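> call design_seq(struct)
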């Protein structure tokens, strides 16, 4: 093959001294790029960064700087020594840059998607296989053959090569749109708290939707699809929304309604369809609710708008809890009730404002029933644990005061017995 012949001639003209110089320059480019990225990143770099990645070498900036330095070194050395190794290294760095770019953008845009992890391996394999085919000279021949396979569609001459080029261009445009939308969303949500986070979240969702729409239009144009076809597509999409996609459309609209009205906010403790937990995120289509036990419920936004939702922290985060205990009849409740109220106030997480309360609620079969009321301000940290702490504190206080917690009592009446042979007692 012609490319292999050119590659063989290039390598045959490579001298040991020239190879040593190129290897040294290439190692210097990589080391310089690594040190510069590490300096810019710092000891604790930004988490989930597209530029820096989780480590120094797995972001976009490292292969970009190495590629830039390699091209500059190649330009400076091409008049001094024959260039061979740097010509081989440049496509490798370009391939690494493409892989890092696609992988990091997809990880940031879809951080919890299993499909993204599978796509990472697929993209890596495709890029490296394309590089190997280019080095051995198969890729140029394959491109020529794909360009020869063409046909006419609606008066437009199309080929397999143009379709693949359009798909590649569309992929780059969508990656750029995802990158930009993720950057804007991270900037808007940085440092947001309380009511402000809902407004920023709706702005981030609107920006992402607009950028993805613009990116989709540009991608279709890059792929050679005329935008005039959108009129037909819009009619079909309208029919689809009216029939099968109405629930999805309702979820997207409901997401913006929730964020705009501040009916539900990130951090609120809610109960929906029997599931209780804290809202950890509000997406455009669904809301994520996390319980104190670690389970997460993905609730469609349409359900949060059309069904009843119990919000324990809409006005404030304080939640009232209660527990009950019985004391024996004859217990002097005068000094006992203030003592129990004081004990409740000493339990961690129990609020002193509103103050705890103790009430006599019933004269039970076995004793006097007391209801202990108290408030907490952090229900997302659990409720059963604080109720258990209150029960232990009350039990210790009753034992210290010598107050008895009665056991269930039953009175059994037995009929009178008669002597053997005696007549039974007169029923009258």
């Amino acid at each position: 093959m012609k490319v292999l012949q050119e590659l063989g001639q290039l390598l045959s003209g490579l001298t040991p001294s020239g190879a040593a110089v190129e290897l040294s320059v290439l190692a210097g480019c990589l080391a310089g790029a690594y040190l510069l990225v590490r300096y810019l990143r710092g000891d604790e770099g930004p988490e989930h960064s597209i530029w820096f990645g989780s480590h120094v070498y797995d972001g976009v900036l490292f292969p970009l700087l190495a590629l830039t330095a390699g091209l500059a070194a190649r330009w400076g050395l091409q008049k001094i020594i024959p260039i061979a190794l740097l010509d081989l290294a440049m496509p490798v760095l370009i391939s690494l840059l493409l892989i890092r770019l696609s992988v990091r953008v997809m990880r940031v845009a879809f951080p919890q998607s299993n499909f993204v992890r599978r796509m990472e391996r697929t993209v890596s394999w495709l890029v490296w296989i394309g590089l190997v085919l280019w080095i051995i000279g198969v890729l140029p021949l394959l491109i020529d053959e794909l360009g020869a396979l063409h046909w006419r569609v609606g008066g437009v001459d199309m080929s397999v090569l143009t379709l693949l080029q359009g798909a590649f261009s569309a992929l780059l445009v969508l990656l750029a749109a995802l990158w930009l939308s993720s950057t804007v969303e991270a900037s808007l949500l940085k440092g947001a708290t309380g009511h402000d986070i809902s407004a920023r979240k709706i702005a981030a969702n609107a920006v992402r939707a607009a950028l993805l729409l613009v990116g989709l239009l540009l991608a279709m144009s890059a792929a050679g699809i005329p935008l005039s076809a959108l009129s037909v597509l819009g009619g079909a999409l309208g029919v689809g929304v009216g029939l099968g996609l109405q629930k999805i459309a309702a979820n997207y609209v409901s997401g913006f309604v929730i964020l705009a009205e501040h009916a539900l906010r990130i951090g609120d403790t809610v109960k929906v369809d029997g599931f209780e937990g804290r809202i950890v995120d509000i997406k455009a289509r669904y809301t994520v609710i996390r319980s104190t036990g670690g389970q997460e419920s993905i609730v469609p936004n349409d359900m949060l708008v059309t069904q009843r939702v119990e919000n324990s922290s809409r006005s404030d985060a304080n939640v009232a809890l209660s527990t009950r205990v019985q004391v024996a009849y004859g217990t002097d409740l005068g000094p006992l009730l203030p003592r129990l109220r004081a004990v409740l106030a000493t339990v961690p997480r129990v609020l002193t404002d509103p103050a705890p309360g103790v009430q006599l609620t019933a004269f039970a079969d076995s004793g006097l029933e007391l209801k202990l009321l108290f408030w907490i301000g952090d229900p997302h940290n659990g409720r059963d644990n604080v109720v258990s702490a209150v029960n232990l504190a009350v039990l210790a206080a009753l034992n210290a005061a010598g107050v008895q917690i009665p056991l269930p009592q039953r009175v059994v009446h037995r009929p009178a017995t008669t002597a053997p042979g005696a007549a039974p007692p007169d029923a009258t």
